[in-house]
Amino acid sequence: MATRRLPHDRPQLSWSGWGDPAASAPLPESLRAVLRDGLGVGRPTPAPASPAAVALTAPSLPEATGRELAAITGAEHVRSDHETRLRHALGKSTPDLLALRSGAPLAAPDGVVSPASHDEILEILRLCSEHRVAVVPFGGGTSVVGGVTPHADGFAGSVALDLARLASLQELDEESRLAVLQPGLRGPEAEAVLGQRGYTIGHFPQSFEYATLGGFAAARSSGQASAGYGRFDDLVLALKVATPAGTLTLGRAPKSAAGPDLRQLILGSEGSLGVITELTVEVRPIPATRVYEGWRFESFAHGADTLRRLVQDGPAPTVLRLSDEAETAVNLAHPDEIGGSPATGGSLAIFGFEGDGDDVEFRRAAATAACRGAGATVVAQAGDNWARDRYRGPYLRDALLDAGALVETLETVCFWSSLRGLYAAVGEALRDCLTALGTPPAILCHISHVYRTGASLYFTVACAQRDDPIEQWGQAKRAASEAIAAAGGSITHHHGVGSDHREWYEREVGSLSVAALRAAKRTLDPAGILNPGVLIAADRVSSL
Amino acid sequence: MATRRLPHDRPQLSWSGWGDPAASAPLPESLRAVLRDGLGVGRPTPAPASPAAVALTAPSLPEATGRELAAITGAEHVRSDHETRLRHALGKSTPDLLALRSGAPLAAPDGVVSPASHDEILEILRLCSEHRVAVVPFGGGTSVVGGVTPHADGFAGSVALDLARLASLQELDEESRLAVLQPGLRGPEAEAVLGQRGYTIGHFPQSFEYATLGGFAAARSSGQASAGYGRFDDLVLALKVATPAGTLTLGRAPKSAAGPDLRQLILGSEGSLGVITELTVEVRPIPATRVYEGWRFESFAHGADTLRRLVQDGPAPTVLRLSDEAETAVNLAHPDEIGGSPATGGSLAIFGFEGDGDDVEFRRAAATAACRGAGATVVAQAGDNWARDRYRGPYLRDALLDAGALVETLETVCFWSSLRGLYAAVGEALRDCLTALGTPPAILCHISHVYRTGASLYFTVACAQRDDPIEQWGQAKRAASEAIAAAGGSITHHHGVGSDHREWYEREVGSLSVAALRAAKRTLDPAGILNPGVLIAADRVSSL
């Protein structure tokens, strides 16, 4: 089957914030008043005016190495201009955006290399291993955990390996419902090229518009419809991976008993073990019916109990989400979501059903019965509003930061029996820490993903910025992370480890697990050039 | 919660064949006639009369080491008598049973150690690492791929680590639907202790009666109801693992983005990376309704197409199986399964539905519509007969071997688009090879497990034994394995790698994957004592 390459008219992600700059919106005056009166937000901290206003560390890559890279990809695919370096220096966490605003020079890659093939990537990795150049695989650049920031101490330099030119559908196997896709495809691009054939992946995380398939796989992304379609790591059936030591080709069946499932070693490896150059992903026919609806429960606890029963006893909706009372009331992330509804108390659930008509009706009837049995009531328009605004959350953050608010999110996951304790502990830790710093926060939470044995919690925190908001958030994040560890949660359900969660990750899986992973890394990446400092601490191995 | 320990009145697995010796049945005369007239089976090769009639290699474990082991577990839990060694020398493959019949001395462990706790296992592993004693973790002893045969070349000796004393339910978390269980519990024991509380794991492989939970996890077992409950590797949410380098504690949530899913490194590791000492397993309420039914399709291809549509478009049955025309007609493994039905042509499918009444009816109606649409007809009693005899297959093999037939099974899995080619290629390879050897075979096949993206094939082969039936089967197995590799299948869907599939496993995942796995093993098991020769070839590392 012929390779289908997409035209490269992709919208560019804002260099200083989230999304398409043309789609950013000013903060409503009503929200400004809430920030001012409720949280004491007062001192605007605007984003830099232009890329040129942001200082970057001086590049250190030897010119000769740059020429050798250019010989692999062609000179036009090795860029080291200021704006390109800046656009590959950071992800999209609040600390990233605050770092941009701080005026301090940012650690940026010395250059950005854009290969066109698996073989070019193998060559680049061999070259960079030989010259000890750190390589940061770069997809959409949407990491919120420091997953793309170069950590090049001890290296001759660093390059971002931008996968944008690997953006094709390679093969569609309709009988097996599998698509072979390249890693640089963004969410909407993959959906468009599959949609032409009548298929969808069904993976819709909040970062969908800009994140790439390679990133979804490398960071174990989870989409909003995970209850129906599965997480992205559930959907990846085979992988081709370029490493400094050669090629891995993993997965020739849905499941197998041929040893450990080594696909799972690459999924979640965040570019530290290899570069995913091809993914075989399960696809499904585009559903005939999509219905989203809102239900208001008396309390978060009542709603959580219903979500648990629906997913445990089935049949489960495709989307299940539940906001706590604070998020339901404030609805900071989606200010107009339930604007038309008569009351704002209780706890708002969103259920989505996607499939053919009979299946949707069967599942919807079960959910309706469960909700009614729990005393919940329908909230008109809430489902459609959620679907309309499902990717809008991050857009609001830029304006909030500009206005002087500190806004960030964090997420975790645990088994159901730990959920109440985890919810309480994280909220308390954030509240206590930020209140002690003189900036009492608003804390909102929702259950974003449910499983038969547990669920994830997604927190949004907002307060006034202090003088050093990066340090301020660092303290709050540390307090929350301690609470997560103590309450039995995982440090991340779908954001990944990056460099920000590394310490917590090592505590979570234990030093022996990290040692085993490091041993595997030494085999695949003997010079330790792949995304150093991400996932596991760099270990200084002698050069090749 | 109090630990619940089961009384140790477990039925003992036949030392020379399968199952409870009291439940073995003689071969019906009708079948003897088929063997004689159809396959030329003539020369009986009876099993040895008693354990004493089987020669074992001489033990080499230093007495002092035996005393040190006894100091850990108590002397009564270190056994080296002939029968105990014999009972831990082999699994239950046909080559294993033929080796017993061959008269040649069997490689047996020097001793059998039965620890009572995780900590005792840690001590045993440290001691054996120090003295370079090979350790074979031993659960039910039901491996059919050479997973428990000691490979002690280059070691001071070998011990089987029998996990029978770790056989308790540790904890039941009803809210999260999780049970913490010890690895030595056999299938029926786990179901009994959970059943008292109203729960089931839903994992029912053909080895269910004797295999243990630790083995299910270590070898990535798949049960007959995998379409409904998932494979065992889907059901394991957390693991505690003893390794020579210390303890791994993995899994604190259903899913997480905290790095690679390291549970998946242990699942499928077959005792080569560590000893699973505790499993947290998903449980479900015992279903109110269980219905099994048989449908006859015009052909295997028609039936396979319907199974694929049912699992891809849903709602799927809990059990889906489909015999090819040969298996449907001969029904060697279940001679009385469809005895009462009027015709034996076509291709017999078994569908099972387990759940609450509404759910069962919804799914059953969908399956009925799909079957009728494909022109299939109901086969009365076939479903109930299958359910009654679901664990009986291996019982028949002993009598067949005694009568002089060579009978063995093998299985594989691939994506749907490769299934027809894989089916044809494996059948042809087996037929060509055995016919060339002068023993034309009967070859039966069924689809045993289905996924949205693919399915497994389970072959049963029967022919007359030649002079050296181990070599005879070895040639047939090699021909089938080459065909599997060439047709894009995995060398095993649910039997595991053991030592028998090791070469094919290494070809399947590639040398770089094996090197990464070996590196992880060196970290967890620096002296290389854990199940040497299983999964990956032993690499001779200097002793600690």
Provide keyphrases for this structure.
19 helices, homodimer, 19 strands, six-stranded antiparallel beta sheet, globular, alpha+beta, 36% helix, 544 residues
Structure description:
The structure is a homodimer of 544-residue chains. With 544 residues, chain A is an alpha+beta fold. Chain A has 19 helices and 19 strands. Chain A has helices at residues 29-39, 63-73, 82-87, 94-102, 118-131, 187-195, 213-218, 226-229, 232-235, 263-266, 300-313, 325-330, 357-373, 382-388, 393-403, 416-436, 469-486, 502-509, 511-524, and strands spanning 4-5, 78-79, 111-113, 133-138, 157-162, 168-173, 178-181, 199-200, 236-243, 246-250, 275-282, 284-285, 289-297, 319-323, 347-355, 377-379, 405-415, 442-450, 454-464. In chain A, β18 (442-450) and β19 form a beta hairpin. The longest helix of chain A has 21 residues, at 416-436. Chain A starts with a strand and ends in a 20-residue tail after the last helix. At the A-B interface, β10, α10, α11, β17 and α16 of A face β10, α10, α11, β17 and α16 of B.
Brief summary:
The structure is a homodimer. With about 550 residues, chain A is an alpha+beta fold.
Q: What order do the strands of the largest sheet of chain A run in, or round the barrel if closed?
A: 16-13-15-14-18-19-17
What percentage of amino acids of chain A are in beta strands?
15-25%
The tally of strands of chain A reads 19
Strand-pairing-aware structural class of chain A: alpha+beta
Chain oligomer state: homodimer
On the 0 to 100 scale, the average pLDDT of chain A is: 93
Q: Which value, in Å, is the CA radius of gyration of chain A?
A: 23 Å
Number of helices of chain A: 19
Largest interface: A-B, 88 and 87 residues
